[in-house]
Amino acid sequence: ATGRILALRFVSRELPNDARAHFNLLNVYLSSGQIMKDKLAEFNCLGVVDASSHTFAGGDFNFVENEGDCSGSFAANRLTGDALAAWERERTRLRLRDVPTESHTRFQRGVGGASSSRIDRFYTSLSDAELALVTLDCHPIFAGAISARCHASMHAGLVEGSLLPLIHRLSDHLPIGLG
Fold it and tell me: Is 60 in contact with 29 (CB distance < 8 Å)?
């Protein structure tokens, strides 16, 4: 599927000349699959985002950065070549850092068995000093009786298939929240 990035800039009315009072919000859905030229084009669009203010980015990135973020093939889920270079360039320019979570958010069952990955996530440009004052928490959002804090049992249940009816015919992704 074709990707898209919605970039919103919020400017303070009270402090219009102070970049620290503004922030950017990016809603991300990157192209699915391993066509790196599509992802490269999407990353190149980030060049218009003002890096002088804080940025919060979240959504479906459709790739993982670390081998532990997928239970299937790392090679089939990571960026390569110019797309990887463009992501690293924009991530550095915008000072984006991953908001940690251990929860995988995409689950599928295929011929090779069940697999999961953490392709839905949030990034922030908050500094170490700011993060010492604010605790960010990225977590799946559920409707119903399942606890979003029970990552190990949730992951096991989804991988073994017992919880797949929760997301069957809705999406192969769990929605995530930032708190």
Answer: yes
Residues 6+ apart with CB under 8 A from 161: 109, 114
Contacts for 15 with CB less than 8 Å, ≥ 6 apart: 21
Amino acid at position 102, single letter? E
Residue 32: both structure tokens together:
């699915």
- Lookup result for tokens 């669009």: 45
CB contact at 8 A, 70 and 60: no
Whole-structure pTM value: 0.82
Bridge partners (DSSP) of residue 35 are none
CB atoms within 10 A of CB 54: 20
Q: Look up residue 24 and give its two tokens.
A: 């950017």
C-alpha span between 85 and 57 (Å, rounded): 18
Residue 16: Cβ within 10 Å count: 9
pLDDT in tens, 2-41: 899 999 999 999 999 998 899 999 999 999 888 899 999 9
> 144-172: per-residue pLDDT in tens?
444 444 555 655 666 666 555 455 555 67
Asked whether the beta carbons of 79 and 39 are under 8 A apart, the reply is yes
